[in-house]
Amino acid sequence: MVNRPHVLIVEDEASQREILAYNLEAEGFAVTRAETGDEALTLFSETPPDIVVLDWMLPGVSGIEICRQLKRRDASCEVPIIMLSARTEEGDRVRGLETGADDYVTKPYSVAELMARVRAQLRRTRPSVVGQALSYADLTLDPETYRVHRGDREVKLGPTEFRLLSTLMEKPGRVLTREQLLDRVWGRDIFVDSRTVDVHVGRLRKALGRHGGDDLIRTVRGAGYSLG
Ligand code: CA
């Protein structure tokens, strides 16, 4: 798979954190670990993940407070959060509170169950990173086979153009800024100029239009790019 899904695990208990991280990594996820809420917020802003698994009981700032903060900000509100809480009263309370969490899992949980929930959230928000085929207009993209077709013709793309297209195809119509594209396509670890985005969008346009057809990528002046 080209785009590895990135999970931020926020869990103060080392053994639970490691078991979860081990299993997610074995399934091809990129994992960032945080032990406290403050650390989670810092890591989130450094490299925004695709999903957060967040323990409720943390030393210092609680998981609920972290969840509220992330859901309040434009930059982070779309990232799904799965809250972990202890069984019984805590579990009921966490559900009753309007934290904005996308899902809840009570401890003790089965790792397989939690992974299934993680995938379910990602199928909704980042379908290409969990291998789901995407389509828009006469375009189809299959992240498993790494193939793109426009109508009956296969479109050959380099790895960066492929990631760029899959990111745009996840939500046609939504404008992604160059900054957002840099995060999702290149990741924050690599230093690239925002004009690099323009260069690769240009290459993608050219590849998609090789045999004619409408230009499916829209340039929004001063904002960024969208599909359609
Ligand atoms: Ca805990």
Which key phrases capture this entry?
22% strand; elongated; 4-stranded antiparallel β-sheet; 228 residues
Topology of this structure?
Layout: E1 6-10, H1 14-26, E2 30-34, H2 37-46, E3 51-55, H3 63-72, E4 81-86, H4 89-96, E5 103-107, H5 111-125, E6 134-136, E7 139-142, E8 147-150, E9 153-155, H6 159-169, E10 176-177, H7 178-186, H8 194-208, E11 217-220, E12 224-227
Parallel strand pairs: 1-2, 1-3, 3-4, 4-5
Antiparallel strand pairs: 6-7, 7-8, 8-9, 10-12, 11-12
The structure holds calcium ion.
Residues 12-13, 55, 57-58 line the site of calcium ion.
What does this structure look like?
It is built from 8 helices and 12 strands. The protein is an alpha/beta fold. Strand 4 (81-86), helix 4 (89-96) and strand 5 (103-107) form a beta-alpha-beta unit. The longest helix is centred in the middle third of the chain and has 15 residues, at 111-125. Calcium ion binds at residues 12-13, 55, 57-58.
User: What string, H for helix and E for strand, traces the elements in order?
Assistant: EHEHEHEHEHEEEEHEHHEE
Strand portion, in percent? Answer: 15-25%
Uncertain runs: none
Radius of gyration: 19 Å
What topology, given as strand order, has the largest sheet?
2-1-3-4-5
Biggest beta sheet attributes: 5 strands, parallel
- Which ions, cofactors or small ligands are bound in this entry? calcium ion
Q: Based on helices, strands and strand pairing, what is the structural class? A: alpha/beta
